[in-house]
Amino acid sequence: PKEDPVIDQTGESHLKSAQNKLLELKDYLAQQNIPKPIKRTLLSHLNHSIRLLDKGKVENSIISLYRLRHQLNLWSMSGKLNEQDNRYLKNKIQEIIEELEEAYVIVETNKGGTYNQNLLAREIKLAEKNFQKMETKLKILASQGKAKSDWGILYSLALEKLNRAKSSQSYEVHINALGAHSLSQEGLFLFK
After folding, report:
1. What is the reported pTM?
2. Which of 73, 94, 153, 183 has its CA 20 to 30 A from that of 176?
3. What is the C-alpha separation between 155 and 6, in angstroms, rounded?
């Protein structure tokens, strides 16, 4: 039987799509009225992620983009980036992360072998620990009427990643645990 051409069996389609989205985001930023120092830093981060992808370092690119999400929060909280731009950029960056995660799982699975099971167990445990801290902090803020609606989206995304990490296999566990951990860290930073 013929292989279904829609299925990306090598991860290459996901990688190309993510790179195209990174380039589109760079073009978008060039047209926006964002303070020049922030725009330069954003473009530098995006270029760094593209270079990492060019070198085949998909996981490092994902980590870099999660760090960029954190940086966006810092700028937004300090008033250097408006909330609308922050929300738009974080959503676009998360789309790219999702695409790269798909590519990562395919590429690493195709290499053969499995991710170290002991390491996976530790990664899940760390992600759970950070998620529980974030959840507790969010519940307290919600009970005080101080929670923001965007925080629920972040919470749901982190929960989804954590649940996927617990019900996946090998590289998918790793990349979802990494996502749950990163998003929980973001929540711990934001929920004040």
Report:
1. 0.90
2. 73
3. 32
